[in-house]
Amino acid sequence: MKRLLLALAVALVAAAPADAARLTKADRAAIDRTLDVFVPAAIARHHPERAYSVVTPKLRRQATRAQWRSGNLPVSPYPAVGTRFHGWTIDALERNYVMIDTQLHPPRRSKLEMTNWTIELRKIRGRWLVDSALPTAFFPREGSGSGNMHASNDLLPQSTQTRERHGRLGAIWFVVPGVVGLLLVSLPLGLWFASWRRNARAYEAYARRAL
Question: Would 35 be classed as within a structural domain?
C-alpha cells in the first residue's frame, strides 16, 4: 500500500508542470520597474519614446520608432499622475505571462474620471515587457453626482436595430403561440368528434339489425 501511495505521489509530481505559473519577488519588482516607465511614457505621453524599450516586439511593430517618439503609438492616452505604479492586482497568470489591473488617477483639477487599466505583460529574455494596455473601467469622481461605474464597452455606439429588437416583439412571437394553442385545443376535440360519430354509426347499425 505504501509503495502504491508513493508511486501515485511521484506520478502527480511528474504530471505537474516543471515551471508552475508564479511570480517571484524579483518578477514583481521587474514588473513594477516596467510600469514605472511605461505608464508615464506611453499612457501619460511624457517622453513617449522611453516606452519603446519596455514593450514587446508585437507592440513595437504596430508603430514605427519615429511614431513612438512623436506620441503616435498604439496605446490610448490618459493624463495619469504619479511616478510609481506598484498597486496592481493579478487577473490571469501563466508561465512568462501575466494580466494585471491597475487604477490610474487624473490630475486633481481635471474633469476626467479615474480609470482601471488592464495591462498584459510577457517575460521575454528575462525582461517583463508590456504586450497590451487598455482602459477597461471608469470611476466617477467624488462630488460628480454620478455613482455609477461604467466599462469601456458602455462608451461604444449602440445599434438602433438592437434597441428595437430588445424593445419590441415581432408578430411572429404572437402568431406561433396562438397556432400551437389552437392545435392543442382542436386536436382533442377532433378526435373526440370522430370517435363520437363512429360510435353513433355503430349504434344505428346495431339498432337496424335488432329490428
Answer: yes
The residue that leads in pLDDT, 145 or 25, is 25
Predicted TM-score (pTM) of the model is: 0.61
| Euclidean distance between CA atoms 129 and 133, whole angstroms | 11
DSSP state of 37: H
Average pLDDT over residues 12-40: 80
Is 161 contained in some domain?
Answer: no
What CATH number does residue 59 fall under?
3.10.450
Distance, CA of 85 to CA of 30 (rounded, Å): 12
Whether residue 91 is contained in a domain is answered as yes
CA-to-CA separations, 111 to 6, 94, 105, 143, in angstroms, rounded:
64, 37, 11, 11
pLDDT at 13 over 60: no
Report CA dihedral (68, 70, 71, 72) to the nearest 10 degrees: -70
CA-to-CA distance for 65 and 75, rounded, in angstroms? 14
Residues in the chain: 211
